[in-house]
Amino acid sequence: MSPFNEEPIIVDSDNSQYEDEExxxxxxxxxxxxxxxxxxxxxxxxxxxxxxREAIIQGLPVDVQARVKTLQAxxxxxxxxxxxxxxxxxxxxxxxxxDCEPLLDRRREIxxxxxxxxxxxxxxxxxxxxxxxxxxxxxxxxxxxxxPNFWLHAMTKVPLIHLYTSERDKEALSHLMDIRCVTSAQSxxxxxxLSFEFSENPFFSExxxxxxxxxxxxxxxxxxxxxxxDIKGSAIxxxxxxxxxxxxxxxxxxxxxxxxxxxxxxxxxxxxxxxxFFATPKFPSSMRLVEDATAEExxxxxxxxxxxxxxxDIGLSxxxxxxxxxxxxxxxxxLSENDMEGEDFSEADFEEDIPDDLMNQIASHGGMGRxxxxxxSDDKSGNEECRQQ
Length: 389
What we know:
By secondary structure, the chain is an alpha+beta fold. The protein has one domain. It is 38% helix and 15% strand. It is flat.
């Protein structure tokens, strides 16, 4: 089953959308009666967290209280340093994105054929020992502008994206002009938004489709783990059912019970498509207690979690691999044997759609070598992990 072919559903981004599968940690019941070497601290569950902490400290011997207070002061100083670290990290992330913008703009201009690179810039893309073989002057010129189907070929080199990209998708993806990523203004850890820009096409009306991943901190100050809280996709306005790539046309035969007259009717049912990626996925039930769930409900929640995990993996691959290293994926240079392990792909799967003239040029400069792909660094921290901390 595709992780995307659910109907778009508005997701409640409440922090409580995940339910612990293991026995939850009840802080109040744990703290109501705390014993330590003969000392019993009877705590009122109506106390605030700050009041409970103070009550525990007051129940300690006087000399121990002073030491705990000192540890609290040290912790506050460390928290302040950590907050400063995150502030500087956010500044650095924004500076990095700003510095990359002119390079990404230049890449887009070359892909679209708006500018032509000079000979020295072309040579800079090859090892020094290949310089004598690289020239813009030598060889046959086709008059073709830009790099046709660049993003189609770059994205479909990612096995998980290749798996959900249908033959019908490829024509629509040939209109993909650029992909950009913007991290959250709150924190680099708070998520990101992917933007896919398309030229005018016969499939849908939008020129920009987006996918937003929202993460929240397990603790208010943002110093703990971050968990995936929400995913928001773009609604796609298909120009007709016939060009809607997320459904397929099925003709059904019907017989009139009284007259035996036969007629055919057309229905549309969901099918695998890359464009299901832009649907907003349904999250598991946030209110259902695990002990109250039926076996069928538990299985449904597990399936939804698997779909969300796969959705996140695709989004993160686009953010951390495809966008920064698009040309490596276009030439298959970002793929290694480890990346392909367990996948039933052949070299032909990745070469069949690249124009012959481009394939000849690539082959003349050493073929489509394979390098080492960078592994995604973000992790998916569910809300249940926050409760266990």
